[in-house]
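Lab meeting, item 3. Inverse folding demo.
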């Protein structure tokens, strides 16, 4: 990958600074669905991370589609990128580290051509994503917190060295893995957000959300906490709980509302993602708002319009 230094430069304002100022930023949508829309085959166990090897230009094009739609934060293609997963494909640690760092560069390049502030969040998916069996929607893998920390630390070190604006500790199914991730990022010098995947008012593993969000109390490195990869119906209450428990800016990016059938490897049901909900989420404390699986550029364009500041002369609604 080659790019001039200007196109790879981060925005002048830091993401923590923008959040501290109370601004609300629009995240992108699902990377995998946009890649499929571009004709990519994601049937491999590495999922979208395979394209870091085979077709990085497709990943950059997917990021660019979200930038054009109005996204202000791009989440990298690192969700399923792990040293263990790449090793199963015969890719050694040195090359795997290059590919992970490259995921940050691809997003930075797509952001750099926009002519506006676009931040890059390096995706750190859960242990279950590496298993490629839906384990991230169950958690409780039978590993200790220490074992999970040992799994996550090398990857978070590699991604932090690539200088993203934030590490996105995302789709976390239980408090054990959240604790392991928080340990794994300590001392790396990069801000993080922590987002759980939830069902109702509990994590996927069944812990109450108040308990789960409470883990970030006193964690200054955590600049936002919330939920992703969940039903949009569950997102609103989760935002309220996250804001009340932590006092931190909240991150929220639910799925389309369809359900993933692991056995059939396909989506079922109807989409319920409604960009009009974004105003309610913002009023409840959300400052990073976007979509996850099956939420595409058209949804993000509507979301960006819903969250845009009113034009001069228009009334301002709280």
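The presenter then showed the designed sequence:
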């Amino acid at each position: 990958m080659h790019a001039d230094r200007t196109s790879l430069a981060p925005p002048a304002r830091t993401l923590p600074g923008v959040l501290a100022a109370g601004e609300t930023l629009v995240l992108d949508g699902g990377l995998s669905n946009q890649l499929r829309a571009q004709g990519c085959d994601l049937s491999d166990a590495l999922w979208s991370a395979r394209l870091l090897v085979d077709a990085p230009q497709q990943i950059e094009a997917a990021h660019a589609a979200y930038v054009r739609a109005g996204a202000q934060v791009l989440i990298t293609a690192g969700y399923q990128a792990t040293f263990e997963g790449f090793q199963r494909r015969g890719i050694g640690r040195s090359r795997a580290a290059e590919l992970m760092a490259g995921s940050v560069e691809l997003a930075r390049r797509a952001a750099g051509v926009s002519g506006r502030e676009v931040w890059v969040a390096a995706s750190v998916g859960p242990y279950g994503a590496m298993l490629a069996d839906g384990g991230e929607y169950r958690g409780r893998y039978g590993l200790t917190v220490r074992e999970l920390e040992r799994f996550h630390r090398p990857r978070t070190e590699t991604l932090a060295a690539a200088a993203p604006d934030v590490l996105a500790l995302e789709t976390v199914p239980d408090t054990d893995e959240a604790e392991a991730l928080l340990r794994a990022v300590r001392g790396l010098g990069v801000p993080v957000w922590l987002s759980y995947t939830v069902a109702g008012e509990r994590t996927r593993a069944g812990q109450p959300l108040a308990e789960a969000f409470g883990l970030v109390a006193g964690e200054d490195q955590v600049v936002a906490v919330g939920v992703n990869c969940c039903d949009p119906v569950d997102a609103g209450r989760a935002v309220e709980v996250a804001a009340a428990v932590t006092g931190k800016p909240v991150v929220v990016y639910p799925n389309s509302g369809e359900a993933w059938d692991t056995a059939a490897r396909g989506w079922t049901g109807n989409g319920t993602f409604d960009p009009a909900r974004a105003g309610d989420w913002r009023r409840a404390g959300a400052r990073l708002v976007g979509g996850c699986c099956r939420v595409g550029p058209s949804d993000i364009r509507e979301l960006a319009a819903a969250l845009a500041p009113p034009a001069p002369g228009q009334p301002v609604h709280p």
